Amino acid sequence: MQWTLDQLRQFVAAAQAGSFSAAARRLGRAQSAVSTSVGLLEADLGVELFDRSRRNATLTPAGEVMLQEAQELLRQAGGLEQRALSFAGGQDARLSIALDEALPHLVLGALFKELAVRFPALELTQLNGTATEVADYVEQGRASVAFNFDRGDPGPAFAHRYLGNVAQGIFVAWEHPLAALSEVGRSDLARHRQLVMQMDGVDELVLSPTVWRADSCYSIAAMAADGVGWAILPLNIAEYEGNRNALARVPCEDLSLPMLPVRTLWLQGARLSETERWIQQRMGQLLRAGAGG
Questions:
Q1: Which one of 68, 103, 161, 246 has the lowest number of neighbouring Cβ atoms within 10 Å?
Q2: CA 273 distance to own-chain centroid
Q3: How far apart are CA 263 and CA 103, in angstroms?
């Protein structure tokens, strides 16, 4: 078969317009050219697409089915052309990024919706993990960039850039003794088990002599919700769906918690692509706009 995409376009135009003359006007071609093109398509396919026994040609039953096939082929061809244009313009074909599991989901949701529209040809892979794991993904070559909470110097292998902040708070289960206090001091916190993030080489704030550690903010939030102890958590983790009704925020004027900075990491010497630079810039804008909780 030697049919062409142009013949398919003229066939679809004629079917949608209701006549060859209307399709010719829409396409800016002579009616005879459109009629001849569709006739050659029919001959090549060995299928009668239009019933020409009436004044205006109408689709045959076979033509109605073939119209759907033609429209799908044209859609795929358009996608192929758009993807080729994107790649020719220097956009990434594939991108793998690593994301700290504790990053604000509202920021990430907004970011990826915009990314899908701005870079429609991109094939994206997301690797999720703890702050330590996502840095490892970059060092191992599994991801080109990582986004995580800044909890100290990432080491000489990485270049990094500050993007924005997320607020923190002290949280306990509603039935925890601390939740019943109108005001909590450091001494009150010290009387109860503290749940702390565990990261190699990072000294987290510890106020209690009794400590449980985990490398996941979600694990810490779950333990706090179960009444195991109190924890300092990013607000977006404490306010996430499964935690929102299970955790109470504890007021403590004795303890001033800093904002938790968010950063991006990539290997020293690596050149960031247009897509990676856009993601960094847009995530920073969303964090500064307050989507980080």
A1: 68
A2: 17
A3: 10
Measure the CA angle with vertex 180, ends 175 and 183; round to 5°. 140
Burial of 237 (0-12, 13-18, 19+ CB in 10 A): buried
Tokens, residue 64: 């109605």
Task: Identify the CATH class of 168-249.
Answer: alpha beta
Q: Which top CATH class is 94-166+260-288?
A: alpha beta
Alpha helices, H only, the chain: 5-17, 20-27, 31-45, 61-88, 105-118, 131-139, 186-190, 217-225, 235-238, 241-244, 274-288
Which of 134, 145, 177, 142 lies closest to 278 in space, CA to CA?
145
- Domain positions in the chain: 5-88, 94-166+260-288, 168-249
Q: How far apart are CA 145 and CA 159, in angstroms?
A: 10
Question: Which of 1, 150, 137 shows the shortest CA–CA distance to 73?
Answer: 1
Q: Note the CATH number of domain 5-88.
A: 1.10.10.10
Give the contacts of 227 (CB within 8 A, at least 6 positions apart). Answer: 172, 173, 175, 176
Q: 249: which strand partners? A: 171
Q: pLDDT by residue for the chain (293 residues), tens digit each?
A: 688 989 999 999 999 988 898 999 989 999 999 999 999 999 999 999 999 887 778 899 999 999 999 999 988 888 777 766 666 666 667 899 999 999 999 999 999 999 999 888 788 999 999 888 999 999 999 999 999 998 888 888 999 999 999 999 999 999 999 999 988 999 999 999 999 988 766 667 899 999 999 988 899 999 999 999 999 999 999 988 778 889 999 999 888 888 999 999 999 988 888 889 999 999 999 998 874 44
- Tell me the C-alpha distance between 230 and 220, whole Å: 9
